[in-house]
Design brief:
- This protein is of the alpha/beta class and 452 residues long.
- It contains 19 helices and eight strands.
- It binds adenosine-5'-diphosphate and magnesium ion.
Length: 452
């Protein structure tokens, strides 16, 4: 067996152990370049691949090699840079290829029956510690809809992959062995509009009948139903009739059920009755994997230093990461030079300075919005519970995140005695340690404050 065949063996076995996206990212442009005594030398294109492969896959690769050829006892990764395709030297043929592939990418059609977009699949969904629970639950649901986790409730901030993951479940079911199952993706806005119009035209029975044959109902952004009493009532019946027939229900929201304001208790408890999983922010390494996966999907290429710069600096969410990448690819197509300086300029809108993300206005705005209040309500001199708690949270965050002094906080809240501010801070601080619900709320609020 020559080196190429040997490496092919490793690659074909590695595919079973890691996701397609990770595989494509870390094993692209790798090869065995030599065998020295009992050691195999593997070349990788850059320092990131080297680090990843030696930290995460060293053992597994060695095991496969050793199983194939017992004389192999050790491996070593060395960096062999690939010639960077500079945009200035890109031939018109290559530019055309980018254009075509981008076109190809956008050409995906939304299926009229299921409302699913085929571009959202498990194969191009990158998994990391920030989303692995949600991913695992989603896979389990796709394999056995209606029986594993029902409902599946996925929550997290905007642009973190909720829609992608839910649609991946739908696509897997619609294309796999279960393709006779009727899948339907509906945004909660559409659902509410449907219910409202059915009420108005007195056709609620027809509306419900249209949902009855669905085997897998995917409802995106269910927080939208908050405060809409009539819609909640009708939806409750729809939910029950599907649920009783073991039909799978998948929901997403920007927050967990117990933090959705003005959601009927009976719906809340239905939503909490299955599996609740969150998606959060990817770390730097995962951002890099995501960028590389997207590049491959688009059949494009960028210098490593540019990718690295984007992964370090665009942290808000995955949608922004993708937006930043697309912007750079357009500039590349226009033959603009690509280096850290030029990319910094291209991405000025995507990168926020750590100093201007959290400020007084942002905290007040975010807390009020989170609790479905108007900003001025937070300053109402009232003892109503719905206001007191959010006000205390706002005071707590001003202290904790911005290091405001207690008298300064008191001044902001209408010159109150500053012991009120101290009391609020201590109360929230203490509860934060004892009460998971509050901790979760604080985390979600902070996530929003810092995500721009
Ligand atoms: P949300 O519904 O949470 O607001 P989306 O599912 O719309 O977020 O994701 C925003 C964009 O980021 C989409 O283009 C999606 O494909 C991409 N994306 C999100 N999470 C991932 C992931 N884990 N791997 C690859 N792409 C992702
Ligand atoms: Mg979404």
């Amino acid at each position: 067996m020559n080196n190429t065949e040997l490496w092919q063996t490793v690659l074909s076995q590695m595919q079973f152990h890691i996701s397609k996206a990770n595989f494509a990212t870390w094993f692209q442009n790798t090869e065995i370049i030599s065998k020295e005594n009992e050691k195999i030398i593997i070349s990788v294109p850059n320092a990131f691949s080297k680090e990843w492969l030696s930290n995460k896959y060293n053992k597994l690769i060695l095991k496969i090699l050793h199983n194939t050829d017992e004389s192999i006892k050790d491996i070593e990764f060395i960096i062999k840079p690939q010639p960077i395709k500079n945009s200035l030297t890109k031939s018109s043929l290559e530019v055309k290829k980018i254009e075509e592939s981008q076109l190809k990418f956008e050409e995906f059609k939304i299926d009229k029956n299921t409302n699913l977009n085929p571009r959202y699949t498990f194969d191009n969904f990158v998994v990391g510690s920030f989303n692995e629970l949600a991913h695992a639950a989603a896979l389990a649901v796709a394999d056995n809809p209606g029986f594993n986790y029902n409902p599946l409730f996925i929550y997290g901030g905007t642009g973190l992959g909720k829609t992608h993951l839910m649609q991946a479940i739908g696509n897997k079911i619609a294309e796999g062995d279960l393709k006779n199952k009727k899948v339907k993706y509906i945004s909660s806005e559409k659902l509410v509009a449907g219910i409202v119009s059915a009420i108005r035209t007195n056709t609620m029975e027809n509306f419900k009948a249209s949902l009855a044959p669905i085997d897998v109902l995917i409802l995106d952004d269910i927080q939208f139903i908050a405060g809409k009493t009539k819609s909640q009532e009708e939806f409750f019946h729809v939910f029950n009739s599907l649920y009783e027939k073991n039909k799978q229900i998948i929901l997403s929201s920007d927050r967990p059920p117990n933090a959705i304001p003005e959601l009927e208790d009976r719906l809340k408890s239905r939503f909490e009755g299955g599996m609740i999983a969150d998606v959060s922010l990817p770390d730097y390494e995962t951002r890099l994997v995501i960028l590389k996966t997207k590049l491959q999907e688009k059949e494009a290429d960028l210098p490593e230093e540019v990718l690295n710069y984007v992964a370090i600096n665009v942290k808000k969410n995955i949608r922004e990461l993708e937006g930043a990448l697309n912007k750079i690819l357009v500039c590349q197509k226009l033959n603009q030079p690509l280096n850290i300086e030029s990319v910094k300029k291209m991405l000025s809108g995507f990168i926020s300075s750590p100093f201007d993300v959290a400020n007084y206005k942002k905290i007040i705005e975010t807390v009020a919005k989170f609790y479905n209040l108007e900003e001025k309500n937070l300053f109402d001199p009232t003892r109503r519970k719905e206001i007191v708690r959010p006000r205390q949270v706002a005071m707590f965050l001003l202290r904790r995140e911005l290091k405001y002094s207690f008298p300064a906080i008191a001044r902001k809240f209408g010159g109150k005695d500053h012991t009120t501010a101290i009391y609020a801070y201590k109360k929230i601080d203490k509860e934060n340690e004892e009460n998971n619900k509050l901790t979760e709320e604080l985390n979600l609020i902070k996530q929003r404050i810092y995500s721009g």
